[in-house]
Amino acid sequence: MSDTEPRVDTTHSDSKSTEAVLAVDVSGDLRFMLDQLPDGVIFMDEAWRITYANEQARRISRIRPEDLNSKSHWELYPATVGTEQERRYRRVMYERVIEEFEVYYEPFDVWIKLRALPIASGMAVYYQDVTELKRAQIEAASVTRRLEQVFDATSDAIAVLNREWRYTFLNQRAAKLLQPDGRELIGQTMWNMFPETVFPGSPFVENFFRTMNEGVSTVFEAYYPAPLNSHFQVECQPSPEGVVFFFRDITESKRAEKALRAEQAETERQRAELEAIYRTAPVGLILFEPKELRYLRINDRQTEMMGLSREEVLGRRVEEIVTSPIALENLRKVAAGGVVTDFTFETAFVGRPDETQAFNVNYSPVLDADGQVRAISVAALDVTKLRKAERALIQSEKLAAVGRLASSISHEINNPLEAVTNLLYLIATDEVLPPSLKPYVHAAQDELSRVSQIATQTLRFHRQSNKPTAVTPAQLVDAVLNLFAGRLSNSGIHVEASYSTATKIVCFENDIRQVLNNLIANAIDAMRTGGRLLARAHDAHHGGLEGVRILVADTGTGMSVETQRRLFEPFYTTKDLNGTGLGLWISKEIVDRHGGDLRVRSTQNGKMHGTVFSLFLPKEPPAVAASNSAPLKSPAVVKGEGLLR
Q: For 600-617, what is each residue's pLDDT tens digit?
């Protein structure tokens, strides 16, 4: 033993003084130094009695002065008997080895970290109270366990990489996603385990290195190729250890998102198709607000029928647009929950106040989930032309009946006319006839001849020829003028007819007579207070064809530009109930079938007013020129309607 090591006197002494029981051959400075140590220091002799304890040891182990050189360690601290501490102490004492360990002494509720080593007199123990440190470690371990439980419970996968890019932590979700084949990642580097993530422009390399080297957080989406074959959303956070990254498998959500985008695209396509159908539907479609009956939606066909733009209609009340009160009544009925179907009425719109139109309309309520009327849907079909067609058909049937009656009358009149003609001839040649009566007989013969001619022309208008015939312009025009002779005379209209050509044209004579009939009848209607009717004919060329041009001119009131623009439209008329609007349309069809041309010039000028119709007819229509045996097809609609205009 050295001079500086305490020397213990093993002679038992009843003295309670520390100095009395220790034979320490040391200076007071050494004892002072031992008391200043932060660790406890005790010496035990071979009888396990504590022979020395510094100040820290006395505090930690609760050693009283009377405990020194008295009871054995096992008597002072019976809770240590039979423990790992006893086993290690005995190894130090008897086997002369050094032991370092930690023990928990329950009676004092302290954790002690010890270093026991043999000395000449027995053994020495250096130790410190590590209770606070141990409790902190236990708490840290508990917190770590709780955090791990939280991390394992979260739906996000969490992994930690140290600065060597080695995995140091994986929660259960991360282990399941990154270790599908059962391989262990802890301690392995990311780039070695997943080399397929390393390529030029890799989002993994770029974002992970930014977080690791620059200490910034990054968030990105990327596709993990084989063996994972998954899309991930990744968030990288810097940590003192390296990088913590949170990620989740969004493969299914990506697929769902793709399917949703496809569904949205399909829905948008269908919506666009429905919108296009709605906008371009041939019937008028309207959606009304049910409270104030304001226009919410309207398609192009309906705005066209109204003569207003969409902007001029939307938001306005129905009574501001439609003049008929019936529409308002029907809408109110549907707003109350009723239904109106297949309803036909006539009305005008503020955009076209002078034009009455007929509509077949269906009104339907649009109900919400509670059964309340959310809107009113209206589908309107313009039946104006159909109405006119019906009226024209009725008129056509009447005219056809009149034509047949006129033909029958004409046929029946011819027999008595022939008898009267013969009788007048006998009277005129009778020698006993007084000279004074002969002028009257001749006058009667002339008038009777005129009656016969009118009857013959009427019959010819009704009869439809089967093939074209050759006829001069004079024969065509004069026959029609003769029919209107009485009306022309009574209307105070002076007729001027001159023909500078005798060229014959091949045509369906009765059809062309019908065209001229319409032109002359319209001219008479335009001169209610009298005027001049001019009929001219001359040779002409049109479209490379040689033929004849017939002019029919009047000094009537003339036509407006709008009337001239729509003149040849079916059912367009300026004669109200007195006209069908079919005469000039049919005339144009007849002329086109003959390969001809029908034009009009008109003016309403105060001094020079009137209308000129120019009719060109080729010498031989194209169809006839191609095959003399193939006659032009006469339109069936005009058969028996010679007076139609």
A: 999 888 778 899 999 999
